[in-house]
Every structure is written in C-alpha cells, then in structure tokens.
Amino acid sequence: MTLMERLYLPEILRGLFVTNYHFMRNLALNIAHLFGVARGRRSIQTTQYPEQRKTYPDHFRGSHRLTLREDKSVRCTSCFLCATACPAQCIYIEAGESPDPHIEKYPVRYEIDTLRCIYCGLCVEACPCDAIRMDTYVHPRIWGFDRKDFVETKEMLMHRSFVLEEKGRDGNMNEMLEWYKEQDRAVYDPQRPELKNYTNRNAPQHLRPAPEPEPLPAGNRHHLPADGK
After folding, report:
1. pTM over 0.90
2. Which residue has the higher pLDDT, 216 or 100?
3. Tally: H helices and E strands in the chain
4. In the chain, what is the straight-line distance between the N-terminal and C-terminal CA atoms, in Å?
C-alpha cells in the first residue's frame, strides 16, 4: 500500500465522492424524466423485480426438480446419496418399496428445506441416476410466513419437471410470478389474522401441505376403561 492509501482519508473521500455522484446523477435524471427529458437514459440500474427480471443463463443453479421416467414416475431410487452429500443437511427422504419389480425403492417423501439449502449443486453431482437437477431457471421462493412454506415437497419438485416439459424454459418462473400476483390480490392485508395461512387456500392441490393430525384430547391420553384394557 502506498502512503496515501495507508492514511485512509483519501480513500474515504473517494468513496464518498462515488456515492454522492451516483445519488446526484440519479436524482437529476429522475427529475428530468418527470418533465419528459432524457428518457433514453436510465437513472436507476437496479432491476425492478418483479416488473422487470433478468434472464438466467444456462448454467444458473435454480430451484431443484425431480426428473421423470417415460411413464411419468419419479426417477429417484432413494439411494440417499444426495442427502449424504448435502453439506446443509436440508434433504429429507423417506424410502418405500417400489411397485415396479425392477426397482427396489422409491421416495415416499422427498423434501428440501430451502431455508437451509445453499444451492451448491452437490446433490446433483452425487445422484447416480440423474434424478435431481437445478435447471428450472427460477430463483428460490422468497415469499412465506412460516417455515413450512419454504419446504419443497416431492409433488412440487416433480411438478417443475412437468411444467418445464410442457411450457419450456420460462414456464416455472411465469407460474411462480403469477402465483405471487394471485396471493397479493387475495390475501395481502396485514390486518387479517388468517394472512399466514394463505398457502392453504389458493395454492394448487399438488402444492398444498398435508393436513396435520389432530392431537388427542388431554383427558383421553391416559384414560383406561374399567377393565384395564
């Protein structure tokens, strides 16, 4: 480092100059746009999502999907290699006996906790049968009011493969943005106490979480009949 850099003051002044330059430039251009001047020059370089969005490149690591066989069944064989390779431990698999005699197991449950996922892609590399991919060209979901809203189920992961096959590259992104708009029109009101339960009302059937079993009443948990059975 030079003597001027070690003094820090010149670097602080340089940083303040850059910040104030962009602030004054954007302010002047926004005022000019109000009067119809300099319309061809952008004042703010930030992408105004969701009204504007960038097209993700082919190598973008997007949300996960479970690939399908020709008969539309899930390709996963519940070998647990993806869950073992995951450094964030965000993949949960419950295996079951496959109805296909040529396949030993299949995932009864396959869930990814996207709040813990770091989107490293190690699960894709570890899978020996190409059952999981991250080529959906859609970023992680950013709207939810409960942790379970960010847990992607087997049905949701399979659904992305159907959408990708039927609607192409932008299908999953367009579907997510449309779902955002539907929820915004339906329930975006902080004064409504049922706001946090919006996913149970307007989500498609394959995205609705399974109903939780009702707890046994406290008075009946340890109650035994008179004969002791």
Report:
1. no
2. 100
3. 7, 5
4. 83
